[in-house]
């Protein structure tokens, strides 16, 4: 049973880890842009970036198939030119999880960057700091905790991802079967012991993450 | 050092328009910029520091031209060498007092050795009686201590001009009185030209050699208090102040 749980657990951690990294980079960047720059269509872009949070994961999965499927806009190009097929692979699962987790990073990052007093950045400028140094020494250190808290939520969300992953990556044991999919299989197959164990493992990991991120959400200064 | 400002800027926000048209020269080292809130004092300071770009005009300190729209000069705030003490001091909350003070030294003292700049930080900590607080964070400081950190942080870069935006307004009245004296002392000690924004007449009395009066986005009066108005009648500061206040707030208007 332990071995049966270990394979999906490791795969889940791998998928959620890479998905979180992807969500952190894209969500952090979008959060920064929307917090600091005012441009035409900003509100619409904000809504689109938040959409994955409210849409059914199966709908997101379907969108992903349209985009990265073998005949999709990007997937078709990837397959023809590089021979890469993201469908039914763990990389596809990463992408699905990243899309679902993206809004959590994006929302926290935007709020965190907006929470940094622009007067502090101006103070750094009058003290001779280049724009890069202002970002590295003032903006990022002050926004960092909020972004990290959102990132941890994103990781927890990525761990529990089910719908979009199933649509894109399927449910292949040892290849794309993550914890939540394994739980579903175990319940369907009547393997109650395995299901209990998997549920317990998932719950513990998620509780730990939430406790840690809750600590980070509290302001330090 | 002579400060010459002649700028125009139109700001629009929430359907309202504010026109700044500020023009003055300050030739003494201690200039007080006085006027009601919302009269354009802070905006002018931000333009001098390079944090806000005027639509047109010219800003010059001594021989250095910081901004000139007609010849396309617009120095970045980083290279203006102007110290700015913000109204709420804008101390970096995530850095200790020591690191706050050292913040501007990093790229100022290029070629300067590390030990040299940390010696400077030591020296400024002592000068401003902050050495016992070197490792404290700004949230644990009193208002007066915060202001001393902000001053030390700006002065350690040896700026050509020090801008202070209502430096005393965040302090309680007793402390305000003391810090006002300290400011005057500091100005004498560091011999740095300073421009102080205030709407407190007591600051004018204590600090002003030059008085620049703002009202509704315009400079309505520039008084050289060392020489007296027009050089003809040597008025006391109090008299000048009385006249200015009477002009800004006509009897019966309030």
Describe the structure.
The complex is a heterodimer of chains A (221) and B (254). Chain A has 221 residues and is mainly α. Chain A has one domain (2-217): Orthogonal Bundle (MetI-like fold), CATH 1.10.3720. Chain A is built from ten helices and no strands. Chain A has helices at residues 2-36, 42-54, 57-68, 73-82, 90-114, 118-126, 131-160, 163-169, 179-188, 192-217. In chain A, α5 (90-114) runs antiparallel to α8. The longest helix of chain A is centred in the first third of the chain and has 35 residues, at 2-36. Chain A is globular. The model of chain A has no long low-confidence stretch (mean pLDDT 91). With 254 residues, chain B is an alpha/beta fold. Chain B has a domain at 1-81 and 195-254: P-loop containing nucleotide triphosphate hydrolases (Rossmann fold). Chain B has eight helices and eleven strands. In chain B, the strands form two sheets. A six-stranded mixed sheet of chain B has the order 7-8-9-3-10-11, sandwiched between helices. In chain B, strands 2-1-4-5-6 form a five-stranded antiparallel sheet, covered by helices on one side. In chain B, β5 and β6 (73-74) form a beta hairpin. The longest helix of chain B is centred in the C-terminal third of the chain and has 18 residues, at 173-190. Chain B is globular. Classes of the chains: A mainly alpha (221), B alpha/beta (254). At the A-B interface, α6 and α7 of A face β7 and α3 of B.
